[in-house]
Amino acid sequence: MNMSDNNVNAELSKIAPGILGAFVALLLSHETWQRKVPLFLAGSIAARFGTLDVSRITGLDVGFTGFLLGVFGIAILNKIFELWTTLELAPILRDALRKVLGLPQKEE
Predict the structure, then answer these.
(1) The 3-state secondary structure of 47-86, one letter per residue
(2) What residues contact 90, with CB distance under 8 A and at least 6 apart?
């Protein structure tokens, strides 16, 4: 086994629990596949980049922390999507971006 194999194994051991957590959350989700794909990616990314810090803060095992971030990263993002839709924030953001970029306001 050479050095690059060790690096790949170390990286996989960091991201595998988060990916598995995100996958488990998707199995329990009743969302459409078009919504499941970005949720899965977001849960996996949250786990990849947040695991070590959250593990250090909480004292939980790194693998378990990654799994939890994969599962709950999806739940948190899903609630953000729901809030975004409920509060109808898309038109507000669109108008703010138009103002910042100096574009004319869209006529309704």
Answers:
(1) HHHHHHHHHHHHCCCHHHHHHHHHHHHHHHHHHHHHHHHH
(2) 84
Rounded CA gap, 21 and 30, in Å?
16
User: Which structure tokens are listed for 64?
Assistant: 């378990």
Task: Report the mean per-residue pLDDT for the chain.
Answer: 85
b/e 6-39 (16+ beta carbons within 10 angstroms → b) = eeeeeeeebbebbbbbbeebbeeeeeeeeebeeb
Averaged pLDDT, 11-29: 87
Q: What pLDDT shows up at residue 4? A: 65
For the cut 70, the answer to whether the pLDDT of residue 104 exceeds it is: yes
d(CA 11, CA 55) in angstroms, rounded, equals 16
Distance, CA of 35 to CA of 79 (rounded, Å): 12
Q: Which residue has the tokens 């095992």?
A: 61
The answer to whether 26 and 73 have CB atoms below 8 angstroms apart is no
